[in-house]
Amino acid sequence: MTHLFGDTFTKTDLLHRVGRLPQVAGVRLVTLEDGLERDTRVLEFRTGTGFQFDILVDRAMDVGRCEMNGMALGWQSNAGFPGPWSFEPEGLGWLRGFGGGLLTTCGLEHTMFMAEDDQTHFGYPPFTSQEFGLHGRISYLPARLTGYGETWSGAECTLWATGEITQARVFGEQFVLRRRIEAKVGESRLKIHDEVENIGNAPTPHMYLYHVNVGWPVLDEGAELFAPVSNPVARGSHDTDGYTRFHGPRKGYVEQVTEHDIHGEKDGSVPVAIVNRARGIGAYEVFNQTQLPRHFIWRMLGQGTYACGIEPSTNSTRGRLADKAAGQLIVLEPGQTREYDLELGALLGAGDIDAFEQRVARIGS
After folding, report:
1. What's CA 317's distance to the chain center, in Å?
2. Is the pLDDT assigned to residue 152 strictly greater than 90?
3. Going from the N-terminus, what domains does the chain have, and what CATH number goes with each?
């Protein structure tokens, strides 16, 4: 059954009341037409509950704007969501087009800070090493949009989109990311299923990170983190005491990254949320620790750049070279595939927030 506006509907009941589904929900392909974002394709999703989000087709099908009843869940930067032409691969150039949004995908061959690593496994004598910039290049690559629309199964309607993003070079890495995004009419959440395949002929290192960016008005003075975690460790010299509670924007704030051990439900699911009880709103993620065994918090509580990343990852904050030395760098053989699942959604009202808090608490009991 489909739940909308306090009532329950079958497909027939609902379609008797509307001229067509987009009257209440749907998915629509548009193209942005101005400024740095010009020519960027976007899929606009509306589930009918007040939950709306944009899929940035030309930015790896990441999630840009996301709102619940007009309240933003994700942070956005002044960089906006320009197309792939804005990519600066060296050093910190990734930040030039880091528009934020609810989700920025990082990888496929590298995440975290810069590193130079051996590339002789590709068997091309002039290509012996490579300098990797911040967080890799996948989030700047356009998708081949393979489909989108609405599908009914009995009394439930699913909004969906699928695409393929290829990251390849001659004598280098050759990956394809196959992404499917789904959201049910009458629900305030979306689900992402990713498959990363090595379509080349050489074993290739692989790193993957979901940069989930929560912003105001969810993030504000008094907001708090719900997460089944322990043993926080700072990357840097900051204090981890109180890192699960948030304050308002501060001038001169320096980013803080804290990694911690994660604990999951019986099936490996890990629920994490940032909630604002005063406003009755929260943003959450659910990932699987068998796919993404690491998690960290990026606190950037400065003026203007006011965001918190809740970030599941294949690798630690130590970076590529440290994880390689520890034998923790994933290598995909030719034809090998890894799968990842991520759920993102809104918590609305005290009931949703309390239920999510109890879900997290049960993991530690």
Report:
1. 17
2. yes
3. 2-364 (2.70.98.10)
